[in-house]
Specification:
- The protein is built from six helices and 17 strands.
- With about 300 residues, the chain is of the alpha/beta class.
- The strands form four sheets. Strands 1, 2, 3, 4, 5, 6 and 17 form a seven-stranded mixed beta sheet that branches. A five-stranded parallel beta sheet has the order 8-15-9-10-11, with helices on one face.
- Helix 1 runs parallel beside helix 2 and helix 4 runs parallel beside helix 5.
- The longest helix has 26 residues.
- The protein starts with a strand and ends with a helix.
- The mean pLDDT is about 95.
């Protein structure tokens, strides 16, 4: 029986691990993959202590710090979470079952899909959800970036450095991005071709992506763009399926917590982008992770005194 199980290996999970270790808690980290969303981020200019750092570089620093402590880490995908009759928890993964007195859900989010014909078929053959990871593969080619937020504009900026031509397809008439990001887009030496107020209808090709079909909102005439790559940047979905029926979700399927990361179940906490916090930032996720570990420690102390 662990005192604490931390689900997730991003900024929230790794920070929770450090704080749990400093409180000498017997803890286990379960993660599908290392680093979380920052591993897809090239330019980070607002994390305190760094004028500039890439996401992978920052997560490597997090990892170095975690590994200075005796935290048990397993690379397994969590598939289930249940409350036991005594108030403890069972966490089920693709590697087995684990018992804990408390749990921190810090499993983050994953890219939202377009759900259009051809998307699934051409994923990995031209359709990508990570411009930072796959951008260099499209050097000298024509690509489209789909989305109107910070991630989409940043992706368009990034791939414009290597691609011959970049289309930016936004469903919104006004970008939902930070002013500094919009300014960088407008200052590009190689302009991005913008389609504002357009929706995606299909991805076409034979062995790989060859065309992207779009249509202006409110109209019916389709436009086919000749592209070899499509980067989908339309937001994220919480990795919360394993909490279904157990924790309270909001309309976005984020886990509802109070200001101390507590959920509707005692001993169960949610930190980082998977919870309903209004702002999704690395520094906020890390702060959530620290808070969750400290509150979990308090919970266990109170539980121990009550048993005594």
């Amino acid at each position: 029986m662990y005192e604490l199980i931390i689900i997730g290996g991003g900024p929230a999970g790794m920070t929770a691990a450090v704080y749990a270790a400093r409180k000498q808690m017997n803890a286990l980290m379960l993660m599908k993959e290392f680093g979380g969303q920052p591993m897809w981020t090239m330019d980070i200019e607002n994390y305190m202590g760094y004028q500039f750092v890439t996401g992978p570089e920052l997560m490597e620093k997090f990892d170095e710090q975690v590994r200075k402590f005796p935290i048990e880490i397993k690379f397994e995908e969590v598939t289930g979470l249940a409350v036991n009759p005594d108030g403890s928890f069972t966490v089920t993964s693709d590697g087995g079952e684990y018992q804990a007195e408390s749990v921190i859900v810090a499993s983050g989010k994953r890219p939202r899909r377009l759900e259009v014909p051809g998307e699934t078929e051409f994923t990995g053959r031209g359709v990508s959800y990570c411009a930072t990871c796959d951008g260099p593969l499209f050097a000298g080619k024509t690509v489209a970036v789909i989305g109107g937020g910070n991630s989409a504009l940043q992706a368009a900026i990034e791939v414009s450095k290597v691609a011959e031509k970049v289309y930016l397809i936004s469903l919104l008439n006004n970008y939902q991005a930070d002013p500094i990001v919009i300014e960088k887009l407008k200052e590009l030496e190689q302009p991005v071709i913008e389609f504002v107020g357009y929706t995606t209808k299909a991805v076409k090709g034979s062995q790989a992506v060859e065309k992207l079909v779009i249509v202006k909102v409110g109209e019916s005439n389709e436009i086919e763009l000749d592209v070899q790559g499509v980067f989908v940047e339309i937001g994220l979905m919480p990795n919360s399926e394993y909490c279904e029926g157990l924790l309270n979700f909001n309309e976005y399927r984020e886990v509802i917590t109070d200001c101390r990361t507590r959920t509707n179940i005692p001993g169960l906490f949610a930190a980082g982008d998977v919870n309903n916090g209004p702002d999704k930032q690395i520094v906020i996720a890390a702060g959530d992770g620290a808070k969750a570990a400290l509150v979990a420690y308090e919970y266990l102390l109170h539980k121990l005194r009550t048993k005594g």
